[in-house]
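User: Let's play a game. I give you a shape written as tokens, and you guess the letters that built it. Ready? Here's round one.
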């Protein structure tokens, strides 16, 4: 009877050990998948931020160019308006 109990205890312990190893392996797999998903999301967000920074830089340069162009247009408009004005009449005394 004791021998049978010891055999059963051994079988139970072996099965418990096997299940524990299987559970640990499954847990490592799940954790590995979660870490990979997290890294993928971080990489995606980083790429998005880099893209947005480049887009912001491009838009800032466009704004600067347009401001410069607007200033040149205003200067040209002013120069054309001044050129179209009649010259002041100057009287020469004799």
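Assistant: Ready! My guess for every position:
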């Amino acid at each position: 009877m004791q021998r049978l109990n010891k055999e059963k205890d051994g079988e139970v312990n072996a099965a418990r050990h096997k299940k524990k190893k299987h559970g640990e392996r499954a847990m490592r797999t799940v954790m590995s998948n979660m870490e990979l998903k997290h890294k993928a999301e971080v990489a995606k967000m980083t790429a998005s931020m880099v893209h947005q920074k480049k887009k912001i830089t491009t838009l800032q340069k466009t704004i600067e160019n347009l401001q410069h162009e607007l200033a040149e247009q205003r200067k040209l408009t002013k120069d054309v308006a001044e050129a179209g004005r009649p010259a002041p009449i100057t009287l020469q005394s004799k």
